[in-house]
Amino acid sequence: MKAIAVYPGKKDSVHLEEIAKPAVTDIPNEMGVLVRVLKVGVDATDREINDALYGQAPPGDKHMVLGHESFGIVEAVGKKVRRVQVGDYVTATVRRPGKSIYDMIGTYDMTSEETYYERGINLLHGYLTEYFVDHEDYIVKVPKGLKHLHVLMEPMSCAAKAVQQAYEVQRRMRVWSPKTAFVFGVGQIGLLSALILKLRGLQVFSLARSKAGTLNSKIVEGLGSTYVSTAETSIDQLVKSVGKPDLIIDATGSSQMAFDGMRCLGLNGVLVWTSITGADRKIEVPSDKINLEWVLGNKLLLGSVNANREHFESGIRDLALGEMMYPGIVQQILTNPVEGLDRYEEMMKLLTNEKAALKVYMNIASE
Ligand code: BGC
Ligand code: ZN
């Protein structure tokens, strides 16, 4: 069968690779789930792997199959599988456990080992192919009523983890009850984070460079968040008019913005960084000022990566609630379908364009 792969470490090596079709019996103890892939989303991570910024091939292979945002339909299950049935719509988690204690209890997104194993990203093949198989523990059912949001399950899981982690660490405050949040960035993670925070009842401001009127700004408004163009209103001006937020989520992909967030967080607040910045940028920061404010304000900086099964499940519940609260809005994120695995060059081009598409995904098979 066909797969879209790269040679990790080699720039611009995206290509079609012929690979063997997996079988449900590849997974021991009759716990395998064979999935026929319908759609796979791609993001900046895929672009940066093709730019050879990170990513390693699975041991024994020169190539690595790309793709970590999966959506498919169950084609076969091992006898002991209980979570899903043939015909169910599913997605799959991305990271697989290493050997740390966090890996052993299902929180592989929190591994304390330097090496991490992620399908389509590092040391494991991904989902940009026709079929994949995995243990049922990593397969997550997608409700039929959400199949129009297909490849958003994985990005949603990362947003769900980021928000959940923020609430989790803020239990240090005993009575934390955030009122206002700033979300930096209106890409998929920024938009989905804004949705989750709106569903938790916060007043949300979504910050991005472009002037209002873009699709992204319309989605922000459709979700009940307030769009702020930093080209028109600086962060300082925003803080002057609405105060410092209790929570900031940075999802811009700009380390400059990530650090800017440190200048405007409210007392006792939490700033969450979610972007992976693979380059080597350096900026100057007002370190004395930040140091002082952060100590005097009991402020917290939190990094959040990946997501485990629980975050997929809670993310899916929030997508369902989101459809009730803001019908038809989230699907507007799904802007750029590419038809068929053969068109991998078109896929990569859409990811590389300066005015990058909001969401690129591949239609691999129909039901
Ligand atoms: C993926 C995450 C992954 C992270 C780091 C992101 O693009 O969505 O699942 O953990 O990259 O590799
Ligand atoms: Zn991703």
TrEMBL record:
<keyword id="KW-0472">Membrane</keyword>
<dbReference type="InterPro" id="IPR011032">
    <property type="entry name" value="GroES-like_sf"/>
</dbReference>
<dbReference type="Pfam" id="PF16912">
    <property type="entry name" value="Glu_dehyd_C"/>
</dbReference>
<keyword id="KW-1133">Transmembrane helix</keyword>
<keyword id="KW-0812">Transmembrane</keyword>
<feature type="domain" description="Alcohol dehydrogenase-like N-terminal">
    <location>
        <begin position="32"/>
        <end position="144"/>
    </location>
</feature>
<dbReference type="InterPro" id="IPR013154">
    <property type="entry name" value="ADH-like_N"/>
</dbReference>
<keyword id="KW-0560">Oxidoreductase</keyword>
<dbReference type="InterPro" id="IPR036291">
    <property type="entry name" value="NAD(P)-bd_dom_sf"/>
</dbReference>
<dbReference type="GO" id="GO:0004022">
    <property type="term" value="F:alcohol dehydrogenase (NAD+) activity"/>
</dbReference>
<keyword id="KW-0862">Zinc</keyword>
<feature type="transmembrane region" description="Helical">
    <location>
        <begin position="181"/>
        <end position="199"/>
    </location>
</feature>
<dbReference type="InterPro" id="IPR031640">
    <property type="entry name" value="Glu_dehyd_C"/>
</dbReference>
<dbReference type="Pfam" id="PF08240">
    <property type="entry name" value="ADH_N"/>
</dbReference>
<protein>
    <submittedName>
        <fullName>Alcohol dehydrogenase</fullName>
        <ecNumber>1.1.1.1</ecNumber>
    </submittedName>
</protein>
<dbReference type="GO" id="GO:0008270">
    <property type="term" value="F:zinc ion binding"/>
</dbReference>
<dbReference type="InterPro" id="IPR002328">
    <property type="entry name" value="ADH_Zn_CS"/>
</dbReference>
<keyword id="KW-0479">Metal-binding</keyword>
<feature type="domain" description="Glucose dehydrogenase C-terminal">
    <location>
        <begin position="149"/>
        <end position="346"/>
    </location>
</feature>
